[in-house]
Amino acid sequence: MHSLERTLAEDLSRTLEVIAGTVRDGTFEFITAHHPGLRSRIENAELRLAAERAGLLAQYARWRSTLEELENLWALAAWEASEPGAAEALRLAA
Asked: Could you give the number of structural domains in the chain?
């Protein structure tokens, strides 16, 4: 698990602890029977939360890929600077 996943898991754990500490047994059944609109809003928020998490993880994967690309390009630049023409010779040999 990378740092973003850990951070998201910690945020969710803290939120669930707060919810568990404030919501009494039977609350879900009560809102289902008496406040279906509130239950629907909770369900929608949970779905949005899951979607946001997935989006953040996808963005983070693109971030990591771009960092790796940048690192590789700078390595290629350093190699080319130390041995001019090496990258071109390698490209032609492939």
From this structure: 1
